[in-house]
């Protein structure tokens, strides 16, 4: 969880090329959502979730962890493809090719949704499931808009 948060918050912004500026209000809302969600997930896992001693060997945890890793790999690779769509100075829309873009038009969204459902399966908490569902609804609607 913390690796992806570090990737999304610190590494990804340094990798993207200059583009349209993000409106300040959108930035504040995204920051508040991520801060609240990070607190909620951390508090849930550190204070309330109880796991049996063999939990890390449980099929539910293993399947969820593998799903999280595959989703993160898809997400990072799809971000790489999107960052390199246009050469410097080019404008206009381009259809991404390669990776999961050969199967779904919103591969970056698909990867992130898979990632958070894997996280929810590995954690088995209502908080992680609620975040996975929020991710599905928010990114699912964005993926539909991008597809159209």
TrEMBL record:
One of its GO terms (molecular function) is 3-oxo-5-alpha-steroid 4-dehydrogenase (NADP+) activity. InterPro entries: 3-oxo-5_a-steroid_4-DH_C, SRD5A/TECR. It is found in: Endoplasmic reticulum membrane; Microsome membrane. This is 3-oxo-5alpha-steroid 4-dehydrogenase (NADP(+)). Residues 21-148 form the 3-oxo-5-alpha-steroid 4-dehydrogenase C-terminal domain. It catalyses: 17beta-hydroxy-5alpha-androstan-3-one + NADP(+) = testosterone + NADPH + H(+); 5alpha-pregnane-3,20-dione + NADP(+) = progesterone + NADPH + H(+). The keyword Metal-binding does not apply. Its main location: endoplasmic reticulum. The chain crosses the membrane at residues 22-40, 60-78, 116-139. The keyword Nucleus does not apply. Belongs to the steroid 5-alpha reductase family. Its EC number is 1.3.1.22. One of its GO terms (biological process) is sex differentiation. Keywords: Differentiation, Endoplasmic reticulum, Lipid metabolism, Membrane, Microsome, NADP, Oxidoreductase, Sexual differentiation, Transmembrane, Transmembrane helix. It holds the Pfam family Steroid_dh. GO terms for cellular component: endoplasmic reticulum membrane. It is a multi-pass membrane protein. It is an enzyme of class 1 (oxidoreductase).
